[in-house]
Amino acid sequence: MPLLEKKNNKTLPWLKYGIGSVVVLLLAYNSVYFRKLNEVKAEASGKFDAAAFAKTFLEKQLTPKLATAPDIDELTTLLSTDKNKAFDTYSHATAIGNIRYFLVKGQGTITKINENDLTIQTPKQQLTLAMEFIYGNALRDASGEFDITRFTKTADINNVSSELNKLIRASVVFPFRPKAKVGDTVQFAGAIALNKEHLNLTEIEVVPASLK
Amino acid sequence: MFHQRQLRNANQQTSLGVTPCQTPRNSVSEKSTAWLMLRLGGFFLFMLLVGCSEKKDSNAPKKMAIIISTLNNPWFVFLADNAAAKAKELGYETKIFDSQNNTALESDHFENALVSGYSAILFNPTDAEGSVVNVRKAKAAGVPVFCMDREINATDAATSQILSDSYSGCVELAKLFVQQTNKKGTYVELLGLVGDNNTWARSQGFHSVVDNYPSLKMVAQQSADFDRNKAMDVMESILQANPNIDAVFCGNDAMAMGAYQALAAAGKASKVKVFGFDGADDVVSAIKDGKIVATGMQFPKVMAQTAAIYADEYLKGKREFAQKLPVAVELVTKKNIENYAAFGKKEQ
Predict the structure, then answer these.
(1) Is A135's CB within 8 Å of B175's CB?
(2) A94 interface with B at CB cutoff 8 Å
(3) Max CA-CA distance within chain B?
(4) Is A202 helix (H, G, I), strand (E, B) or coil?
């Protein structure tokens, strides 16, 4: 028997054991998994998991839409010249009424750091970036992706906003806020709320969904 | 001859599904034929009348019943009147029923509406739990129900529930509350009726913001049943135990006015910031005068009109409606008070 063939015969069992072990480990890994007890309880009781919904909504629906948001300066120009067109084209809201939400993006320089927000100067206007009060429905509704007809409970609808805001506070605002300095350039994307009947373009506040 | 006639009569009767006459006597047979003819004539006359009346009914305007929890409160009178006006504008006859905050009376109104042939019910429930059975009764009878302003504790009974977004409105009020108090101090919360879902939606919206600020401490939380006089009494007793509070959050404007009166009587009105919810006439004036800091403006007209429009769309064949449709609540402060009047915006 040639020497090479002998060597192959010796390594073959090790190869077999190696592949076998990998298969067993893979099977074992995929057979056991850990989940939070409160998640399992919520699922068993049929309770809506707002936190999980908000996470998926942020990743799959809101974030991809940010790239298609209108530039804040272009939007405010359109709002000044043709309010109805701007609202019809870009605004969304779950509730009926005059409060409508827009997804926006833009770039500006930080001119002032306030207790609850940052003052930003864009090429055409001054606005604020919310840092403290990340509450309300702006982020949930602005993309138009949130479908209220899927919900039957008022609490679930409200909890989506609440959980989405928590995610943004934790993943976007908290890491950004301590590093922000006057004079820094910031690229932002997020949501704004405007009252269609009493439009005020002098105090625009952006609730951020992305900050760079 | 006798047999032929009897046989012919018998055949006629049989063909009409009537048991053949077995009597052999001629006069009796003739009498039964005449009786049969009379019945036939009566039947055709009845059918003619029914046909005519049905034709008349199909041309008659359809009717919408408007069943309201109470007409003792101007807020609900405004809601009812606007629902009726919109329904009339859409071509319906309307009747407003006052439940006087009594679910038994409300149940009677539902019975009456169903028996009287109303096509749809625009409904302001008396009790979130107790009113469910009435809505289910209407649904079983094929009559759609559209809830206005107050919800019921069921999502498979009403066709749609059009409600103020109380939670979000109070989130906005709470943001202002935190700013106005500089994130610290002691405060009191006056709750509405504990059995009303709006009470808790407002309270939860408020606390979803304020509870994130540990230096803001709630020293008392009590129900005053949405009532001005009760709020005044409750506030007076709270002030005895907690004389140095910084703010009061109230679940409606009537309680805000009651709380303000108690604070004024104790000489603390200028120090304590009061917040309400509703958009009532006296609070709109009080905000102008600087007595109340802010309120959440509701829009009963929008809710009433939307309910009537939805009912009309349902009767014309539409079936897809959101079970819960929120109506935006707007924050009203001294800064923007000029844009608002009681129960909504000023007509422009």
Answers:
(1) yes
(2) yes
(3) 113
(4) coil
Per DSSP, B110 falls in state H
**Three-class SS state of B16:** coil
**b/e map of A162-178 (b: 16 or more CB within 10 Å)?**
bbbbebbbeebbeebee
CA angle B237–B241–B246, rounded 5-degree value: 95
What token pair was written down for B68?
């309201």
Q: Which residue has the tokens 């069943």?
A: B67
Spatial distance between the Cα atoms of B248 and B229, rounded to a whole number of angstroms: 16
| Three-state SS at B245 | coil
Distance between CA atoms of residues B137 and B324, nearest Å:
20
**Is B336 close to A197, i.e. CB distance below 8 A?**
no
- Our CA-based measurement puts residue B169 at a distance from the nearest CA of chain A, in whole angstroms, of 9
Residues A4 and A19: their CA atoms lie apart, in Å, by 22
CA distance linking residue A161 with residue A167, whole number of Å: 10
Cβ-defined contact of B328 to A99 (cutoff 8 Å): yes
Question: Residue A22: is it exposed, middle or buried by C-beta count within 10 angstroms (0-12/13-18/19+)?
Answer: exposed
A128 touches chain B (CB under 8 A): no
Q: Can you tell me the distance from the alpha carbon of B80 to that of B70, in angstroms, rounded to the nearest whole number? A: 10
B interface with A, Cβ–Cβ below 8 Å: 151, 155-156, 163, 165, 167-168, 171-172, 174-175, 178-179, 197, 201, 204-205, 208-209, 299, 302, 306, 320, 322-330, 336, 339, 345, 348
Q: Is A152 on the interface with B (CB under 8 A)?
A: yes
* Number of C-beta neighbours around residue B62 at 10 A: 18
For B122, the enclosing helix (H) or strand (E) is strand B120-123
The CA distance from B276 to the nearest CA of chain A, in Å, is: 18
Tokens of B140: 């079983």
Cα separation of B231 and B233, whole Å?
5
**Percent composition of chain A: helix, strand, coil (DSSP 3-state, to 5):** 50, 20, 30
Token representation of residue B339: 């844009």
Farthest CA pair distance, chain A: 94
Strand boundaries in chain A, DSSP class E: 91-92, 99-113, 117-121, 126-130, 185-195, 205-211
Q: Which two tokens stand for residue B34?
A: 């005449």
pTM attached to this predicted model: 0.77
In the block, tokens 């005053």 appear at B224
**Radius of gyration (Cα) for chain B, nearest Å?**
30
Q: pLDDT tens per residue, chain A (212 residues)?
A: 454 455 556 666 777 777 788 888 877 776 655 555 555 555 555 689 999 999 999 999 999 999 999 999 999 999 999 999 999 999 999 999 999 999 999 999 999 999 999 999 999 999 999 999 999 999 999 999 999 888 888 889 999 999 999 999 999 999 999 999 999 999 999 999 999 999 999 999 999 999 99
Pairing type for strands B344-345 and B340-341 reads antiparallel
Of B155, B302, B322, the CB nearest to A97: B302
ipTM given for this complex? 0.77
- Pinpoint the alpha helices (H) of B60-193: 74-89, 103-115, 132-140, 166-180
